[in-house]
Amino acid sequence: MTAANTRILELRAELDQHNYRYHVLDEPSIPDAEYDRLFRELKELEAAHPDLVTADSPTQRVGNVALTAFSQVRHEIPMLSLGNAFEETDMREFDRRVNEGLDLPVGDLFGGGAAVEYSCEPKLDGLAVSLLYQDGLLVRGATRGDGTTGEDISVNVRTIRNVPLKLHGSGWPATLEVRGEVFMSKAGFERLNEGQMEVGGKTFANPRNAAAGSLRQLDSKITASRPLEFCCYGLGQVSENIAETHIGNLEKLKTWGMPISRELKLAKGIDECLAYYRDIGERRNALAYEIDGVVFKVNSLASQRELGFRAREPRWAIAHKFPAMEELTELLDVEFQVGRTGAVTPVARLKPVKVAGVTVANATLHNMDEVARLGLMIGDTVIIRRAGDVIPQVMQVVTERRPENARPVHIPETCPVCGSHVERTQLVKRSKGKETVSEGAVYRCVGRLACGAQLKQAIIHFVSRRAMDIDGLGEKSVEQLVDEGLVSSPADLYILTPEQIIDLEGFAEVSTRKLLDAIAASKRPTLARFIFALGIPDVGEETAKVLARSLGSLERIMVALPQVLTYLPDIGLEVAYEIHSFFEDPHNRNVIAELLGHGLELQDQGDVHAEFAASTSLAGLIAKLDINSVGPTGAEKLVAKLGSLDKIIAADGIDLRQALAAKQADAVRDYFRDPANAERALKLEQQLQAFGMHWASEKKVVEGLPLAGQTWVLTGSLERMSRDVGKEKLESLGAKVAGSVSAKTHCVVAGPGAGSKLTKANELGIKVLDEDAFIALLEAHGG
Ligand code: IVH
User: Fold this and answer.
1) What is the pLDDT of residue 700?
2) Between the CA of residue 103 and those of 93, 106, 299, 300, 308, what are the distances in Å?
3) How far is the CA of 318 from the centre of ligand 1 (A)?
4) Distance, CA 269 to ligand 1 centroid (Å)?
5) How much is the average pLDDT of 150-159?
6) Which atom from ligand 1 is nearest to the alpha carbon of 80?
7) Among residues 105, 175, 483, 593, which is most buried (max CB within 10 A)?
8) Taking the model in full, what pTM does it have?
9) Which atom belonging to ligand 1 lies closest to the Cα atom of 126?
C-alpha cells in the first residue's frame, strides 16, 4: 500500500470517528477547525489520487450530477403509518388493547393489571426514509412514498452529515435496512429561510416542508447545502435478528454509528408513558427540532409479533399527538400600527382560531415586503403558525381558496393615528465616497412626537426602568396624559402638577406624591441612561453606553459626525447616520433643550475615553474616507510620506506617486480635487482634534499595548470574573471588545453556556480560549 493510501485510510477512520462522536454521541473531542483541517487534507490527497476515492469516503457528501427523475424502489417490508391518540383516554384504550392482545390480565379499578414495557420516542416532524446497508455499506436510500413504493434518493441521503456511509464496528447483519426520519432543526430552518430570503429564493413554511423540499431535490448538490439530519427509529429488512427488544435494536444500531433519539426511554406501564408525554410536552419549545407528538412502541419484539397489524397500522405502536402548531383561518382585515420610531406596521386581523391551545386573532406581518412576499389579500385563507412562545405568524396563503371579492392590501398614505404623511424609508448605502439610495421595506409616519402613537411609545420608553426609571407611570396613565393633551413631549413630564396627576384614572393622593417624587428623582440620570431614554432609532442600551463612555459628554455626542462615530466599538455607518440625523433634527434638539431647561443634570460626564482617543489615527481617518482602492495600508503609506492631512490634500500627482502606486495616487488626487471632499476630511480632522485627539501622540499609545489592534469577543459566563471586568482588562491591554464574531475577530473567550458565537468562531477557525487560558494570558501581561 502506498503512503498516500495509508494516510487516506487513516484520515477516513479518524474523520468517521469524529463524526460519530459529534452526531451520535454528542461528545465532540476536537474543535471544528481541527476537523476541517483533517477533512481538507483528505480532500487534497483524494484530488491527487482520484483512483483512491471510494463511495464511503466522508468527502463524498457533496452531491452528484443532477437527475432528471427519481427511480422507484419497492419496499420489501411495507413502511406503515401509526394510529393516533389525542387524549389520555385514547392512550388508556390503546394500552387495554395491547394487554388484551397479549392475553395479560387487564387491571380493574383496584389495579392488578400487568405493566407492559413501552419504548418512548419523540415523533419527529420530518419525513420517513429507509436506508439499506449491505455488508455495512450504505447502498440505497428511499422515501416512504405510498408505503409500498418509494423513490430512490440514494445520492441525496448520502449528503446528510449524520447518515453513516459505512457502519462502525462489526457484527451487523449482511442486509440491514434502517428506518427513520429526515428532519431539519429549528435553527437550521431559520438559517435556510434567511439565506433564501437574501437571495430572493423560495422560503419554506415550516421545518417539515423545508426537509421534504430539500431531500426530494433532483440536484443533490442543493440537498448537500441544506442542514438535514437523520434519526433512526426502527428496522425494515434484516438478514439476522439483532436484539430481543426495540430499545435493544436501537442501542445496538447506535454502536454501529447510527444516530438515535437522545430522548429514547423505557416506560413500565401506561402511566409512565403519560408522564413521558407530559415531560416532553413541557420541553417541546426548548427542543432543537420540531415534534408533533411522541411514539410509544411495545418494547418486546416477541410481543410485537404476537400483536401484529391491523390494516396499515401496527397494533403494538401509537402516536400520542400534541396540539397542532399550524391552523387555517381567514384574514378579515389588515390594520396598521404605528411604533415608537414611526414605523407603520401591517397587522393581520384574523377570524379567531385555536393554535396549539391558544386563541389567535392577530398576527404580525412585519412590513409591506412581507405582505408582497406572501401575496396576501384581505379575505384570503391563510396558514397561521404559533411555534412555541413566538408571536403568531402568517406563513402562507392558500390561493386555491381565495374568494372572488378578495381585496389587495395597501399601505395608507396618511398615518391612521395622526393623519401625517406616511413615507417609504430609504436605504442609503455609502461606499467609495458615493451614496446609493434604494427603497426600504419600512414605511414611517413623519409626525414624530406630534403623532399620538409615537408620542405614547416614546414616553413609555423614556420612563421605563432601564431608561429614566420613573416608577408609577404605567402605559394606561401615559395614554391618558397624551390623550388629554397634558404631555406633548417627554420634557412635559417635568412640569406636571399634582392637580393634573390626581385627576388621572387610578391616582389618589399617595400615588400622586409618589409619582412626583419619582419624576423629581429621575432628574440626575447618567449620560448613558439619558441617551438610551431619547429613543434614537437603532440605539439600544449597549450603544448608548458606548456613546457615553467614549465621548463623555452630551455636547460631543450631539455634534459628532457620522465618520467620527464609526470609530466607536460596534457602531457601523448606518447607525452612525441615524444618531447624527437624530441630533441634527431641530425638533429633537428642542426636546433636549427643554429637558435640560427643566433642571435635568446629566451625571458621569467627562473627557473623551482614552480607548477612543487611542483608536483614532490620521491613517485611520483617511481609510474611512473610502477613497477608491485606498485601504488602511495605502493610508498608512500616505501619512508616512506626507505627514499631515493638509499636505495630502495639497499634494499633486507626483508627490502622491512617491507614496502610492499610480492608480491609487490618482484616486487620491481626484478625490481631493472635489472641494466638498477636502472640506469633509478637514472637518473630520477638526472634530477629532476638538475632541482631544492628537495624531502625534496616539500612535505610541496604540503600539505600546500588547493587544493593540486586536478585536476580542467574550461569550458564555465567566466564573472567576464578570464579563465587564474581563472586557475592561482586555481594553486596558489595547484590545477592542466586540459583541459579535466576524472574520476580523482575533480571539474568542468562551465560558460555560457559550452558544452561537462559539459555533461561529469555530466555523471561521478563530482562536478560542477558555477561562483558565484567558486568565493565564491576562497574568502573562501583568493583568
Ligand atoms: S415508527 C410501524 N417512530 O411518523 C411504525 N415513526 O405516522 C412506523 N415518525 O411515517 C413508524 N417519529 O415518518 C415511528 N419515533 C418514531 C417516529 C415516527 C416520526 C413518523 C414517520 C412515520 C409517521 C407515522
Assistant:
1) 40
2) 15, 8, 16, 15, 14
3) 9
4) 21
5) 95
6) 2
7) 175
8) 0.64
9) 13
Q: Which residues are annotated as a binding site for NAD(+)?
A: 32-36, 81-82, 121, 144, 181, 297, 321
Query: Average pLDDT in the 325-352 region?
Result: 94
Residue in the structure block whose three cell numbers are 455488508: 135
Does position 260 have pLDDT exceeding 60, yes or no? yes
Q: Per-residue confidence at 34, pLDDT binned at 50, 70, 90?
A: confident
What CATH number does domain 3-52 carry, 1.10.260.40, 1.10.287.610, 3.40.50.300, 1.10.10.60?
1.10.287.610
List beta partners, residue 319.
Answer: 84, 295
| Identity of the residue numbered 371 | V
140 DSSP β-pair partners: 132
Residue 158 CA to residue 162 CA, distance in Å, equals 9
Contact 280 CB / ligand 1 (< 6 Å): no
Q: Whole-angstrom distance between the N-terminal and C-terminal Cα of the chain?
A: 54
Q: Does residue 181's CB lie within 6 angstroms of at least one atom of ligand 1?
A: yes
Per-residue pLDDT band for 312 (boundaries 50, 70, 90) equals: confident
Residue 701's pLDDT band (boundaries 50, 70, 90)? very low
What residue's CA is closest to ligand 1, atom 18? 123
| Residue among 86, 124, 280 whose CB has most ligand 1 atoms within 8 A, to mutate | 124
Q: Report the atom number in ligand 1 closest to the C-alpha of 122.
A: 15
Greater confidence (357 vs 181) lies with 181
Nearest residue to 317 via CA among 91, 111, 645: 91
Mutate which of 77, 82, 148, 304 for ligand 1? The one with the most ligand atoms within 8 Å of its CB, which is: 82
CATH-assigned architecture of domain 529-691: Orthogonal Bundle (1.10)
- Is CATH 3.40.50.10190 correct for 711-780? yes
Answer yes or no: is the C-beta of 120 below 6 A from any ligand 1 atom: no
Q: Domain 83-321: state its class.
A: alpha beta
Q: How far is the CA of 298 from the centre of ligand 1 (A)?
A: 14
Cell numbers for 486: 397634558
Give the nearest ligand 1 atom to 125 CA.
Answer: 19
Provide the pLDDT for residue 697: 39
Tell me how far the alpha carbon of residue 19 lies from the centroid of ligand 1, in angstroms. Answer: 25
Domain residue ranges of the chain, discontinuous segments joined by +: 3-52, 83-321, 448-522, 529-691, 711-780
The grid coordinates listed for 19 are 463524526
pLDDT confidence of 696, banded at 50, 70, 90?
low
Please give the distance, rounded to the nearest whole angstrom, from the Cα atom of residue 127 to the centre of ligand 1: 9
For 725, the grid coordinates are 471586568
**Is the minimum distance from the CB of 295 to ligand 1 under 6 angstroms?**
yes
Residue 608 to residues 253, 739, 745, Cα–Cα distance (Å):
64, 21, 25
**Which is more confident, 200 or 526?**
526
Fold (topology level) of 448-522: DNA polymerase; domain 1 (1.10.150)
125 Cβ below 6 A of ligand 1: no
What cell was used for 51?
483512483
Phi, psi for 362 (deg, rounded to 5): -135, 150
**Residues taking part in catalysis:** 123
